Structures are given as C-alpha cells and as structure tokens.
Amino acid sequence: MDGASGTNWLNQLTSNSVQGAAFAPAWAVSAYKNEPMDPLDSRNYYPHPITGVQALRNVPLRASAMIAIVDDYQTLYYEEPTTLYNKFHGTAWGGFGYWKHHTNHDIYASESLLPDGTAFSSKNITINRLADVILMQAECKIKTGQVDDALDLINDIRKRWGLVLLGSAGSDLGHSYDDEAYTAQSLMQHLMRVEKPLETSIEGNNIRF
Questions:
Q1: What are the extents of the domains in the chain?
Q2: What is the pTM of this model?
C-alpha cells in the first residue's frame, strides 16, 4: 500500500511499466470499434478537416474513452491525435490497441514527464462505479422477469456514449434503436458479453463479467 494515497502499488503502475504499454486484446478492440453509433446524437460528428462538412466519428465515444486505437483521429492521446501517436507504426506496433486505464495520456505528452517517474501513475483507482451498479441492477431485473426495466437501465449507459439503444423506440424520436425484441435470455447474453466487459474492461480486481 502507498502510504500517501492509500492505493495498492500494483494499481499505480502506468502503461510504461510493462514493455512500454498495456495491450488490449484484439476481440476487445474490435468490439469497442464496431459498436453502432447513434446517428441522431450530435456528439458522434466532427467537422472534417478538409471539407469542413460534419462527418461521423471514426470510432465510438466509449472506444475513445477506454482504449487507444490507430483509427481514432478525433481523440488526443499524449497531446496529439491517437492516429499520429509514435507507437502506431511498423517497427513499434506490438498489439491492436492500448488500454488507457492508469495512464496520463490526457495531461502529459509522455509518461516520462510524471513527477514520480514512469513506474507510478497519479490516476485514481476505480473501486465501484455507478455504471457497474446500474448493470448489476439490470441483471437483477432480468432475473426477475422485468426485461423492459432492464433495457431502460442498460440504455441509460448507452446514451452516455452516444450508442444505438436496445429495443424499440416507442415514442422516443430523439434516439436510434436497434428494434430487437429482447428476451430475458438474449438480454442477459448481451449484458454479459457486451455491456459488462466494454463498460468496466480492466477495472477492479477479479471483476465478474
């Protein structure tokens, strides 16, 4: 334990502590990258640098928040567009994506600028997060046959990221929906295989997906 912060030292390590990066597996990168973005959400658009016309983002907002991937030109990573980051080229590239957890990509140009050196991160450690609590509540709703209530809870999280929502739109004209008829079984599979791993990814210790 670090006496000053009360943080387990294992959780202080930055991406530079293990071969210069914490690689995200290919399945996770693909899942993040291919989540359907809501075309009705203005956050999913950016002004194209050449034409000036509003264009759809290269990757969804949840992907940009969780991992660094070469497709993500709209998000800064160590003070430059992720696509231009110096580990995304033929001789340096060692994986499909980098986890952003515990890194200081949003406040420094390099982990080497950290006051305590590259082996320690100043980031807070997420112990419990509201989204995880919401997903646990959604799981309880599914198990008690309240599928519509579970859909509402899961969609609250998906709205935050500008993703296409689950189920039917009903009277909601402000968001896009996938129009799937979810059962308790199919929604539980979605929660376990999509929402839980992509929302909490490598947070915590022995987290249950």
A1: 23-100, 130-200
A2: 0.82
